[in-house]
Write a structure and sequence with these properties.
Strand order of the largest sheet: 21-19-18-10-9-8-7-2-1-32
Strand content: 15-25%
Shape: globular
Helix content: 25-40%
Radius of gyration: 27 Å
Low-confidence stretches: 1-21, 201-208
Mean pLDDT: 93
């Protein structure tokens, strides 16, 4: 055999070796359909990543290139130390961003962990690196979009860049929100980083994020199959924007949906048998530890009566224009990084410090988890995947299949702390901050949940202790805890780390249940019902509040114009709704009042309580003052009290078009949530409804209507910068082509074929 093998090799070298060696390692085809949605096909897993990266770069190269500079800790060098970056979902100065990424992403550990991932995952990610670099080589620095043309921060990437980006995504909705407090933590008596004076934690609304997801089983649809609605609420700007794609590896993988920047396959979408979506879970994915410090040294902490020195890491941040590098020191403990939280008692004193330990640190299992979800043929397989891997980082999984099953799985990577563990490891201070964080005792080694087990799932709460259910009617989630995903059967109580139990629901969650139950009561729930539910734009707060407030109006005659505007308002946040902005400004102040409702929350009636607006003398005064202030704000901004919502909340295009945007604040009980930032003349969306999908199944496969509210491309010069935004504004949907015949019929332009 050796002789024949050697002879064949020699012959190949002499007569065909060049051709044999030239066979491509990576190859993919990219077919674009309406709204520039790419359908990427490859015979290899490496080719899948290769094609996805190339297609994504065609639409959003500059944004992704900047993100690679961000996670490498190079923002100060390229954009200046005083400029800002998006760290998680909040803006922060570049020095703080660079300090965090350079000091807290353990690249050596990520490289070690990468070897434990599946061959498929490794090939996909390595292919993504090659595809990104291929696009850069094909295009050239001087032909890139204007935002990054010939920019110093545009470069080829390596696997390390992908490892850093994945780590950032895993921490996105957990400890990354506290990253500024990690990057600027310094012991008392030392020189405090100048940027620490400007650190402000995200407010509760930013930390809560958002999303709605529904799965309807055959009992609700009246058919043999299920129906899924996905309505994630994510940023309209930056690398956390969704991007639509369809990925096919013949015979092994065929899924369509969306991913984030740098995601090499579908993370939210559907295949021929099952559809899934995600909502940010109420579970806590990190714990804080209270440390007792040595009286002699604030960088030494006590564990089981013995002093332990904190470990330090020196971070060097290069500056632009030859300026001296900035040096920072970060501190760590066996319980994680030292963290401070400005504006709270969680600081670093002579006696006490705090450390943060995140269950998603080093979580590379998510890549295989989402890959396997895309290959699932029913919701039971999805439940099995998320349970086995514990790779889902911080989102609920909601799914429906063609067999008519509906799944809600609140199973993620969370600290393995039972109620008993939390009670045994609490501190006198734990109860005071329990509503914000899970605080454990850092003076005892036994309270380190990371040491309670071994292996890749060490210290994580097993799936058997988390929440999951499969039903034939429906399940839904709007970011409240596992406790209720169907009002008929609340879940049993689980560990507090998974969220609140028998506590007041958000108005958006209550609105969800009220509107969903009403839709089901009218008969079989179908696609038209789903579309109406997603874009109803009703405000539960308005339904509960407006009439009682109007009854108070005679007490202040000067409020007559404002009261008239509220009276005529349709209680919705549609583009043609007049008076919506006045109510939104009023409610933003009024909702924060103590004793807002006459009837308190009742765990036996969680959907309808609390209710009954309090209108006693003190309450009436506060409500009318809030309305007065809201009216004054609009008048000062030269906005009519009865202005159309679509004239107030808009998305501007480079040519000056103002696209009307419907949807409103989730805090007002609006399911189609849009959180706006103030601009001249009104608001523009910064966080809210993004990729929406409605998926059912017929004998040929999935039937999917979808819309990406902010469109595919971030390049202002692209024709696909706002095309779906106009579609969203009109409440129209796009039927997604999935089969080869559908894709061929909808093809736009020539097929792109790449290989190397």
């Amino acid at each position: 055999m050796r002789i024949w093998t050697g002879a064949f090799a020699a012959t190949a070298t002499l007569f065909g070796g060049a051709q044999l060696a030239a066979q491509p390692t990576y190859d993919a085809t990219i077919t674009r359909t309406d709204y520039n949605i790419p359908h990427i096909t490859s015979e290899t897993w490496g080719g899948v990543g290769y094609g996805v990266a190339y297609a994504y770069a065609q639409d959003n190269f500059c944004m992704l290139a900047e993100e690679f500079a961000t996670v490498a800790g190079e923002r100060s060098l390229h954009f200046g130390p005083e400029a800002t970056a998006v760290l998680g979902f909040a803006e922060i100065d570049n020095i703080t961003s660079d300090t965090f990424y350079r000091g807290r992403i353990d690249l050596s550990a990520l490289r070690d962990g990468w070897s434990d991932q599946s061959t498929e995952a490794q090939q996909i990610v390595d292919g993504y690196v090659v595809g990104y670099n291929r696009y850069l080589a094909d295009t050239g620095p001087d032909a890139l979009p204007e935002a990054c043309r010939n920019a110093s921060w545009v470069r080829r990437i390596t696997r390390d860049d992908m490892l850093r980006l994945n780590e950032k995504q895993m921490l996105l909705a957990s400890s990354l929100a506290l990253a500024p407090g990690i990057a600027t933590a310094a012991p008392p008596g030392s020189e405090q980083p100048a940027e620490s004076a400007h650190i402000v934690l995200p407010d509760n609304e930013d930390l809560r994020f958002g999303s709605n997801g529904w799965a309807f089983g055959s009992d609700a649809t009246g058919t043999e199959g299920g129906l899924l609605i996905g309505n994630p609420h994510f940023p309209w700007e930056g690398p956390s924007r969704f991007w639509q794609l369809h990925v096919t590896k013949p015979g092994e993988y065929d899924a369509m949906g969306v991913g984030l920047a740098g995601t090499p396959f579908v993370t939210l979408g559907f295949n021929k048998d099952v559809a899934w979506t995600h909502t940010v879970t109420a579970a806590r994915h990190f714990t804080l530890y209270a440390l007792t410090l040595s009286p002699d040294d604030p960088t030494t902490y006590m564990v089981d009566g013995e002093p332990v020195a904190m470990t330090t890491r020196q971070v060097t941040i290069p500056m632009p224009d030859g300026a001296p590098a900035v040096e920072r020191t970060l501190y760590s403990t066996r319980f994680g990084a030292v963290v401070t939280m400005p504006g709270t008692p969680i600081g670093w004193s002579d006696n006490t410090a705090f450390a943060i330990q995140d269950a998603n640190s080093g979580n590379q299992r998510a890549i295989d988890t989402w890959l396997r979800i895309g290959q699932a043929s029913n919701v039971a397989e999805i439940e099995s995947v998320v349970s086995e891997t514990l790779g889902i980082p911080w989102v609920n999984t909601i799914a429906a299949d063609r067999q008519g099953n509906a799944l809600h799985a609140d199973i993620t990577a969370v600290p393995g702390v039972s109620p008993e563990f939390i009670a045994a490891c609490s501190t006198p201070f734990s109860g005071l901050v329990a509503g914000m964080v899970t605080l454990l005792d850092g003076t005892r080694a036994e309270c380190d949940w990371r040491s309670t087990s071994e292996g890749p799932l060490a210290g994580l709460l097993p799936a058997s202790d988390q929440a999951t259910r499969t039903r034939r009617d429906y399940v839904t989630n709007s970011n409240d805890s596992y406790w209720i995903s169907n009002p008929s059967t609340p879940h049993r109580q689980l560990s507090p780390i998974l969220g609140d139990f028998e506590s007041e629901l958000s108005l958006r969650t209550r609105s969800n249940f009220i509107e969903t139950e009403a839709a089901i009561a009218d008969g079989p729930f179908d696609r038209d019902d789903a579309k109406a539910l997603v874009f109803a734009n009703r405000s539960l707060a308005a339904d509960m509040v407006v009439e009682p407030v109007l009854a108070l109006c005679p007490q202040r005659p000067e409020l007559a114009p404002a009261c008239e505007a509220l009276s005529a308002w349709d209680r919705r946040f549609d583009t043609d709704s007049r008076g919506a902005y006045l109510f939104a400004e009023f409610w933003e102040t009024a909702r924060g009042r103590n004793n807002l409702w006459r009837e308190p929350f009742d765990a036996e009636n969680p959907i309808k309580t609390p209710h009954g607006l309090a209108t006693d003398e003190a309450a009436a005064e506060a409500l009318l003052t809030a309305l007065t202030d809201a009216a004054a704000k609009l008048t000062e901004a030269d906005i009519a009290l009865d202005a159309q919502w679509g004239d107030v909340q808009t998305r501007s295009t480079p040519d000056g078009e103002a696209i009307a945007i419907h949807g409103g604040p989730g805090t007002a009980g609006v399911l189609n949530m849009q959180i706006g930032r103030e601009v001249e003349g009104g608001l523009t969306p910064r966080h809210g409804s993004s990729y929406m999908q409605i998926v059912t199944f017929d004998e040929d496969g999935p039937v999917a209507d979808a819309i990406l509210s902010y469109s595919q491309s971030t390049d202002p010069a692209s024709p696909h910068y706002a095309d779906q935004t106009r579609l969203y504004s009109r409440k129209e949907w796009h039927r997604l082509p999935f089969t080869l015949e559908e894709i061929s019929a909808a093809q736009q332009g020539e097929v792109t074929r790449i290989s190397e």
